[in-house]
Design brief:
240 residues, alpha+beta, 7-stranded mixed sheet, two-stranded parallel ribbon, 36% helix
């Protein structure tokens, strides 16, 4: 059932997104009614997609974070900024001691990975609360990214990230914000320190999962870091 539902939802949401844009130019009462109807239908289809996630072996992400991620994914896909049906969602509203990274195949609804992930050392202790786009801040940046190319660095196999939001995360590549493996992203570190280890701003992942995750999400997939302190407004800040 999931294999049939997800492609249909992809089509419906993209279609509604395009229709909403064209009809919004009209100021008639009919366009206002249509826009409200479209919004309702998009929200309904997001809930359908959420309820059909295949999560036999892990907890689901929160609906709020998934909804924002999915809305951004469709906009980026429509603009050609991402190419894969893979969505990586990081929810920084959750404790760093919990598995707060999900890699989702949107073509099937399968959750491919659910993992621990680090935030920057100046972003917070157990919980993330402070974010920055500035160099040497040692803070994480929120928002939407397109995954880039693989390279071998001081942490081994690593993945470049390109921030797609002006003033929010567009300095990511220049800052060296990448996905990489780290020994401090582990249950043993949590046990000994009562919280996960922290990075210099990178979404670091466990050593044993890093190569698999990077291999799946590389080369123009959608990567989204969520926090409730920032409302969804991607369209106004998107890098063209």
């Amino acid at each position: 059932m999931i294999y049939n539902i997800f492609p249909a939802i992809l089509f419906v949401l993209i279609s509604f997104s395009s229709n909403k844009k064209s009809f919004s130019e009209s100021k008639s009462i009919h366009s206002v009614v249509f826009a409200k109807t479209v919004k309702s239908r998009i929200e309904t289809n997001i809930e359908i997609a959420y309820n059909n996630l295949n999560s036999d072996k892990c907890a689901l992400p929160k609906l709020e974070s998934f909804a924002e991620a999915l809305k951004g994914y469709y906009l980026l896909k429509e603009k050609g900024l991402i190419q894969k049906d893979i969505l990586t969602l990081v929810d920084f509203s959750l404790s760093s001691n919990s598995k707060r990274l999900w890699v989702i195949d949107l073509a099937t609804g399968n959750i491919l990975f659910n993992s621990l992930v680090a935030h920057g050392r100046n972003t917070g202790d157990e919980f993330a609360s402070n974010f920055s786009n500035s160099a040497n801040s040692y803070k994480s940046s929120l928002g939407f990214y397109a995954t880039g190319e693989i390279y071998s660095g001081k942490h081994g196999l690593s993945l470049k990230l390109d921030g797609l939001e002006k003033g929010v995360n567009d300095n990511a590549r220049a800052r060296g914000v990448v996905m990489h493996a780290a020994e401090y992203v582990s249950n043993s570190f949590i046990k000994n320190n009562h919280r996960l280890g922290r990075s210099q701003g990178c979404p670091a992942v466990p050593v044993e999962l890093s190569k698999e995750i990077i291999s799946v999400i590389k080369n123009k997939s959608c990567f989204f870091i969520y926090h409730p302190s920032r409302a969804f407004k991607l369209a106004s800040e998107l890098i063209s």
